[in-house]
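#onboarding

Welcome to the new folks! Below is a worked example of what a typical request in this channel looks like: someone posts a single protein sequence, and someone else replies with the predicted structure as tokens. Don't worry about understanding the tokens yet, we'll cover that in week two.

Example request:
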Amino acid sequence: MAQWFPLVLALVFAAHCAGGTNWILSNFALQGGVPDRLRGRVFAADLMLATLTISLSQLVVAALVDHVDERVLLAGCGAVTLIYAVGWSLATRGLRRGTEVDQGASPASRRLAAEETP
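Example response:
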């Protein structure tokens, strides 16, 4: 086990960096696609769902850890993460294609400003 520790440490570090990057890009996409007046509610719901998902996944693994081999649990968690990542990537294709940045203003902000001008 000791000979694998540096590799495991590097992989866990890479996974957390990737997770942080995903969180940043997700927030950027939400800021660009959500009208300003709804942004707080949407970000609150996003954080609530993320916290709920983390809590539920920890409860499921805790319930199974004494009954299932740890390699199976780790492989299962990795598979669920991979399936979620592919599904999220497919579901948000349109957001990536339509991304446009104009002096930090979101597309929704520009649409609202255009609607409000007489």
